[in-house]
Amino acid sequence: MWDWNTAREGLPVVLDGFGITLLATVLGSVVAMVLGLLIAVLRRAPTRWVTVPVRIVVEFVRSTPVMIQLFAVWVLVPSLDPLTIGIAVLGIHYAMYTSEVYRAGIDAVPQGQWEAAVALSLPRGRVWRAVILPQAVRKVVPALGNYVISMFKETPFLSVITVQEMVHEANEYGSVHFAYLEAFTLAAAIFLVASYPTSMLMRRLEKRLAQ
Amino acid sequence: MSEFLTQFSRSLPSVWQGVSVTLQATVLSALLALVLAFVLGFMSRSEHLLVRGLSRVVVEFLRGTSLYVQLFWLFFALPILGFKLEPMACAVVAFGLNYGAYGSEVVRGALNAVPQAQWEAAVALNLSPWQRMRRVILPQAWVQMIPPFNNLLIQLLKSTPLLSLITISDLTFQMDQLRSTTGNTAAAYVTLLVIYFVLAYALTLLMNALEAVAKARLGQGSGLRHVLKPSSAGITDPDGRAARAGGV
What we know:
The structure holds two protein chains of two kinds.
Chain A: H1 4-42, H2 48-63, H3 66-76, H4 82-107, H5 111-119, H6 124-154, H7 166-177, H8 180-210
Helix pairs in contact in A: 1-4, 1-6, 1-7, 1-8, 2-4, 3-4, 4-6, 6-8, 7-8
Chain B: H1 2-10, H2 12-43, H3 49-64, H4 67-77, H5 87-113, H6 116-124, H7 129-159, H8 171-182, H9 185-217, H10 240-245
C-alpha cells in the first residue's frame, strides 16, 4: 500500500536521476537537430549515389527498436561509456525523424526563392544558409520541439544499458525498499509535470507560427 | 559467422516462437489502442464540457507519463495494490492505453478534417446521426487516419522489446538466448534488427493495402494495384501523432 514516508524519502533519490535524464534529453536533442538537418540537406543532393544510401539508412534506423540499437552499440563498443552511447543512439534515432520534419520545411519554401537565389548567382552554400534554411527551420520549430518531448519520455530506455537516469534510480529504490509503488508513481508524476507544460508551450508556439 | 548461421537455423523454431509472441502483443495492443482511440477521439468532440474534459485529462495523462514507466508501474507497482496481471496482460494494457491516447488525437484530427460541407450535406439529406457517421463522415475520415495509424503501429512494434524486460519470451528474448549460446553478439543483434525491419516493412505494406482499399471505396486511386509500388506512404513519422494534433 501507498506509504507517504517512503515516498518522501524516495523523492530525492528519484530526482537525483532526473539530472541525467535531462542531460541525455538536451544533448540527444542537439545531436538529433544537427544530424537531422544534415540528412535533410543530403537528401536533396543532386546525385542518387548520395540520396539512395541516405534513404536506406533512414528507413532502417527508423524501423528498428531503439532499445536493440542501444544494446547493440553498448555490447559492440565496450570502450565507450554508457551515457555517451545513450546520447548518440537516441540522437541518431531521432535525427531520422527530424530529418523528415526539416525536409517538409524545405519543401515548403516557395520555388521562387530558389529561383531568386539562382538569379542572384549566390553560391550553393549561401543559398542554403542565407535563403532556404532560415525560412524552412522557422516553420518547423514546434514539430522539432515535439520530438524533444518524445525523446525525453524515451530516456528510460537508457537504464537498460546501466545509465543511472531517473527510472533506473526509481527501479533501484523500489527494489531495495520494496517500494515499487511509490518509486514508479513518483517517476510517472515527474514525467507528467515536466512534459505537460512543455507540450502546452509547443502547442501555443505552433498556433502562433501558423498565423 | 557460419557457426552462427548453423545455430540460427537450428534455433529457428524458438526464433519463430519469439516472432509470434512479439506479433501477438503488437496485434492485441493495437486492437485495444484502436478501440480506445475511437472512444477518446469521439469523446473529445462531445458537446458536453465534462465528457470533453475527461477525454483531455485521460489523453494528457497517458501521453505525459512515458510508456516505459507505465509498463513498469503495471508490472511492479500494481501487484502491491493487490491486482496482479499476467505479464502479457500488463504489456497489452500499457501499450494499448499509451498508443490509444496518441491514436485519439489522430481520430480527432481526421474527424475535424472532413469538410464542414459534408456534415451539412448529411444533415440536409436527413440522415440520422448514426447513418451520417457511418455512411458519410467515417469513410472519409478513415482514409486520413490510416497513414498516422501506420506510424503509431510501427512505433508500437518498436516498443515491444520492452516485453523481454518483464519476463516475456518475445523475439528479443529469444535472440538474446541465441546470442549467449553462440557468443556472436554482432551477428545476433544485426539479425534481430533485420527481423524487426522486415516486420515493420510488412506492417507498412499491409497498411498501404488498407489505405488503397479505403481510398478505392471513396472513388480515389486505383485500389490494390497501387500498393506494391514504392510510395511516400511508407515513410513513417512517429509523431505524425504529435505533428497532426499539436503536442505530445
